[in-house]
Write a structure and sequence with these properties.
Layout lengths: L18 H6 L2 H10 L3 E10 L5 E12 L3 E3 L1 H10 L3 H21 L6 E5 L2 H4 L4 H12 L6 E6 H6 L1 H14 L2 E7 L7 H5 L4 E4 L1 H4 L6 H16 L3 E4 L5 H9 L4 E2 L10 H12 L2
The structure holds ligand C2E and magnesium ion (MG) (3 copies).
The site of ligand C2E has 24 residues, from strand 2, helix 3, helix 4 and strand 6.
Length: 280
Amino acid sequence: HAKNAGRNTFCFYTEDMNAQTLEALNLERDLQHALENNELRLHYQPQLDLESSKVIGVEALLRWQHPTHGNMSPAVFIPIAEERGLINDIGNWVLETACRQSVSWQEQGLPPLRMAVNISALQLHHVDFYEKVATILAATGMNPEMLELELTESAVMQHEESALVLMQQLKALGLHLAIDDFGTGYSSLSYLKRFPFDKLKIDRSFIKDLPLDTEDGAITQAIIGVGRSLKHKVIAEGVETLEQQNYLRDEGCDQMQGFYFSRPLPPEELVELLEQNSGD
Ligand code: C2E
Ligand code: MG
Ligand code: MG
Ligand code: MG
């Protein structure tokens, strides 16, 4: 669970702290409190089109500053929220906040940006999920075409048949669907053709040692090839260097996201960055 925690956050958790230890810290209670008291925040990480070098979208990423433990990684607290039945409330808050932000940016005259939102497996399979998405779209006035839901392979494969029906319904609303952390799941490639995805997100574990690691290079090229054949967009996550950006552009990857261009930013800073960028 907490395997990826702390890699890029200030957080005291170590790899061997288990769920029990975490529970003992009362994180569940604190998280509930944070949700009720509006202490959760979203940061937004730009997604760049590699050909035009323009920002074409952002991914909303949840941030929680714990009153005593400081910034906590969502990789730590999302699993707790899932285990303790808080994920639906949190997930709905994220979706609604991201949609409101997107509409507000449009009203401020910012260039159109697609808003990508992470959806956890439990949230996706909750009976009210579709209803909730439709309600939030209507309530916020969000253009469905500008909303992209990021699902993981395992979330989709857990209840394949119901996931397929649901995804078709979501597509019918006009939403985009992306597979997050692509290449790390256990699923077969055949599901790519069954499920109505628009985008593949190459997991950053394949990107981090590029361009030197030839095996990662081969995998990355293969994913780009599959994506192109199926007419899906391909985005690389975790791009940290110019060399990686150039490599991906040369290989025909469509988009990228990563610290090289920008970390996830609070909304005001994202607007500043966009304004600086529109000048050139
Ligand atoms: P993810 O959806 O794969 O998000 C990408 C993660 O990679 C983010 O970590 C982001 O900050 C980080 N990242 C982006 N660029 C780079 C880079 O160049 N180098 C490195 N080392 N890391 C980079 P973050 O924000 O800590 O989120 C971790 C995971 O927590 C996310 O992985 C996602 O699975 C989950 N998560 C975050 N927000 C939400 C949310 O609102 N709902 C749900 N269900 N899950 C969320
Ligand atoms: Mg994601
Ligand atoms: Mg990812
Ligand atoms: Mg992830």
